[in-house]
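Here is one chain, start to finish.
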Amino acid sequence: MSQEQPKRHPNQEPIKYGDVLPVSGDLAQKPVAPEDAAMMQSAETRVLGQTQPGGVASVMQAAATKNEQAGIVGHQDVTDVTGDRGVTVTETQLPGRRIVTESVGGQVVGQFVEPTPVQCCPTSPVRETALTIGEALEATSYTVGHKPVEQSDAAAIQAAEARATGSNVITPGGLASMAQSAAAFNADCPREEEKIKLSDVLTGASAKLPADKAATRQDAAGVADAEMRNSSDASATPGGVAASVAAAARLNESVTNVM
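Its structure:
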């Protein structure tokens, strides 16, 4: 049974995903649809307890409402990309914090870190609450672990390892070495499913580092610079290595300010 569509206003341009969220490809050109926003609201509520003010669901709802009022989309419309790949809100639990990642159509559009209570034995020393570079790299394996390793990822991992260890020497068999090898292999690999993914390199990253340290704003800036300098479009991957180190640095600063 078909529904009557609102009359479209003349010369009204749709609000597309690329206008309001950091997405690329086909999704960026699609108008934000009401059912997409409803799915994200449901996902945020399920994981976070409520829709976040100013968050991804809120932004999508505002855009979808304007598109519906302009007659560009119907109330029950779903974008084909999100219909196929869905919208997700996932959380990664780490000691003392959780990392929340929001995705639309398989692309990461939002990520933030929340501190959580840490239980410890009364006779034990107080646990260090700072998030380390190694833990940030591990978080990347959860957020965008499906992404094939590119040169920009390898450069960011190398910069992160150097800052974690205090040495610019690439350790044979270490994270940076593995990432560089993976990027070189992927560059010549014609089959997407055979490419080496970030999760293959970064799972258990903390244990693979010979040394580690709490992530700082300076570390985040250095890693972001390395990732963007080696990216074809001079940008960092949403939810990628630079984004995860930056999220860790922000959490560490917030913890320091509270203490």
